[in-house]
Specification:
The complex is a heterodimer. Chain A is an alpha+beta fold. Chain A has 8 helices and 11 strands. In chain A, the strands form 2 sheets. In chain A, strands 1, 2, 3, 6, 7, 8, 9 and 10 form an 8-stranded antiparallel beta sheet that branches. In chain A, a hairpin with a 7-residue loop joins strand 7 and strand 8. By secondary structure, chain B is mostly beta strands. Helices cover about 5% and strands about 30% of the residues of chain B. Chain B contains 1 helix and 7 strands, in the order ββαβββββ. The longest helix of chain B has 6 residues, at about 25-30. The chains are: A alpha+beta, B mainly beta. The interface of A and B includes residues 86, 92, 96, 124 and 169 of A.
């Protein structure tokens, strides 16, 4: 886990790919900032007159998931309607080396492992069916730092506020822990759509709180220990 | 407003530990005697905020509302270095 102290200290800036991404294994739940390839991105170009329906064009391309993790799931499954932004070559975006300026894009350093800078184009969004977010086509998952930086750019693009990375890490801490535990659940072969129900369960050793509520109160270690007990063979 | 980091040392005051605020920093922050601050731990960092700037969280569950501290975000102005999209070629 990234600490706020680390963010102000030894971390390089701009971050290098090892700091910015996690291994995108199949057990990792889909998360805000995940990059998928070969997703049909829909553009509605103008027709001859406004009363006519637009001319629809579909590009298969790299996209970034825009929705906040809590809002892209429904009953433990990806909700049908997802919002994505296209990925563009950063040469087109003019992102300086320190990432300053270029408020309307979110840098994705070395996204494809070719040493080039890419970016999520936050000037554009489209809706797609979650059906098209195939885990086999997932190229990258963001690290905790990467996720904070991505949210910082989302806020910057639409509000012109730069929230401190340490604040964003702190605010996202519960969700980050939740995703890590969900991944662990999946890795152990448990049905992915059952994790959220388990998280809503209550335990005596959590003082009457549900596991989710305990997580929200910072009791990460206790809930994680509870998960490990749950995942023991025979449970 | 940000300032250059200044080293300070923790001292003892009864059961509490004291962290001094250098005079120049206090002057710049308009911190006056009697002003109230909140203190919290964020990762390894101890963060002081004016009490009036601190986040207020009300409600619970889906009704939970948090007011983000006003004192920590930076405001940017002007247009992005990336021009607005005026065609569909992206």
């Amino acid at each position: 886990m990234v600490s706020a102290g680390t963010l102000g200290g030894s971390l390089s800036w701009p971050p290098v790919p090892d700091e910015y991404y996690l291994p995108a294994g199949p057990a990792r739940p889909v998360m805000q900032g995940d990059v998928f390839d070969n997703v049909p991105f829909i553009k509605g170009r103008r027709a001859s007159k406004p009363t006519d329906d637009p001319n629809i064009a579909v590009d298969r391309r790299l996209v970034v998931v825009l929705g906040y993790p809590c809002d892209i799931y429904s009953a433990g499954r990806l909700a049908k309607v997802q919002t994505v932004a296209p990925v563009i070559d950063a040469d087109k975006a003019g992102i300086p080396s320190d990432w300053d300026g270029a408020f309307t894009v979110a840098p994705l350093p070395d996204l494809l492992g070719d040493g080039r800078m890419y970016a999520a184009d936050l000037r554009v969004a489209a809706n797609i069916d979650a059906f098209y977010l195939e885990v086999a086509n997932r190229k990258r998952c963001l690290s905790e730092l990467g996720w904070a930086a991505f949210r910082q750019r989302l806020g910057l693009a639409h509000t012109r506020l730069i929230n401190h990375l340490s604040d964003l890490v702190a605010v996202g801490s519960d969700v980050w822990h939740e995703m890590a535990m969900w991944q662990r659940w999946n890795e152990r072969g448990r049905p992915a759509d059952r994790f959220q129900a388990w998280l809503d369960g209550r335990e005596a050793n959590l003082g009457g709180f549900s596991r989710r509520a305990a997580l929200g109160r910072g009791m990460h270690d206790v809930v994680r220990a509870s998960l490990e007990v749950e995942l023991q063979p025979g449970c | 407003m940000t300032t250059t980091p200044t080293s300070v040392k923790v001292t003892r005051s009864g059961n509490s530990k004291m962290l001094p605020v250098p005079a120049e920093l206090a002057r710049t922050a308009h911190a006056e005697l009697g002003d109230a601050y909140t203190v919290e731990l964020l990762g390894d960092d101890i963060v002081y905020r004016r009490a009036s700037d601190h986040a207020v969280v009300t409600g619970s569950g889906a009704e939970r509302v948090g007011v983000v501290p006003a004192g920590r975000a930076l405001r940017m102005t002007g247009r992005s270095g990336v021009p607005p999209l005026d065609d569909w070629s992206f």
